[in-house]
Amino acid sequence: MGKKVRVEHLSKIFGRRTQQALEQVKAGKSKQDILEETGATVGVHDVSFDVNEGEVFVIMGLSGSGKSTLIRLINRLIEPTSGEVYIDDQDVSKMSKEELREVRRTKMNMVFQNFGLFPQRTIQQNTEYGLEVRGVDKEERRKKAEAALDNSGLLSVKDQYPNQLSGGMQQRVGLARAIANDPEVLLMDEAFSALDPLIRKDMQDDLLDLQEKMQKTIIFITHDLNEALRIGDRIALMRDGEIMQIGTGEEILTHPANDFVREFTEDIDRSKVLTAENIMEPALTINVEADGPNVALQRMRKEEVSMLLAVDRKRYLKGSLTAEEALDARKNDKTLKEVLDKNVQKVEKDTLVTDIFNIIEGSAAPLAVVDDDDRVVGVIVRGSVIGAMTDTDTNDSEELKESQEADDKKGVNADA
């Protein structure tokens, strides 16, 4: 996967004494101090990141964090004070007006919060607008616009006008118009912020569905962490014009870079973000193609467990094996394959913790975690799920977790 967008040491200072303000930023002075001393406002300072082709990269932060300035620096609606922006290794910050106009027409489209539809044009005509500006002939732009409207479930309203549609429908048209232009990079600035919560969730679903089909490179601005976690492959969290941390939702929640990030994310329901891979433990396994019951029982004694996951030589999951089943195999001269339980419960490594809880709640046995090829990569015990679903900093939840883990990890009977 190649790098579609590269941002290198990008800064924007609003005001006249930009050089003095930049020097003060580098010296560690606050935005407020710089404003008072120079009259200049720090919009963005020394921001660097890459966006992969086909990635949804979310830039988020509170009001005044610099996120909207940053997205406008990427397509040069705002001129940078310093730094570079590359699209496919072309430096946007050094392009002539003509080159920049061509890039905006063919490579980058922007979807704004206020929809930006022309009230006097029909939905079809609005959707065709970008293609019309590019000089695409009438029949081709009609086909492309109708395909984009059909993808967004809007074909039936193509002859209506924007004021006949709800806010959610208007924003769908704005998205369809951007998609019709077939941009390589889609910039979305607080695109869903003005919508009611239920409509906003629908729009997020629409975006995810469209992205699955079209695999665009999307840079999405939001102030809503839940929205960022829901749609972003990676998230850049901003404060006072600087990036505090870049990572996946899981990385930011589980390994916050500093106190600001930790406080920003503390109210998030982690069970709706964390996955099996994040809470699993190394799996204790037995190779049923090579090992016998004595090896299995010896491993259980050593590890002080009463169950192992049964795998083959390539670690494909074959079932589970309890101490009782291993004893049965030893006493009755059976192979492990003959006695193992093939109905072991399993989850894929990207299964959400909130979904795992519903599976493991009524099960005494741990869950196997498998990759896309059904190979065992770990195991989950109830205590880990409970710990992820509660605030594990509290004593009560720690005690509950330890109690559950003790239940999950009972030792083998001495007769074994």
From TrEMBL:
Membrane topology: Peripheral membrane protein
Cellular component terms per the entry's GO annotation: plasma membrane
UniProt cross-references to InterPro entries, sorted A to Z: AAA+_ATPase, ABC_osmolyte_uptake_ATP-bind, ABC_transporter-like_ATP-bd, ABC_transporter-like_CS, CBS_dom, CBS_dom_sf, Gly-betaine_transp_ATP-bd, P-loop_NTPase
Pfam families membership: ABC_tran, CBS
Main location: membrane
Broad enzyme group: translocase
Catalytic activity: a quaternary ammonium(out) + ATP + H2O = a quaternary ammonium(in) + ADP + phosphate + H(+)
Quaternary structure, from the entry: The complex is probably composed of two ATP-binding proteins, two transmembrane proteins and a solute-binding protein.
Protein name, entry field: Quaternary amine transport ATP-binding protein
Gene name tied to this protein: busAA
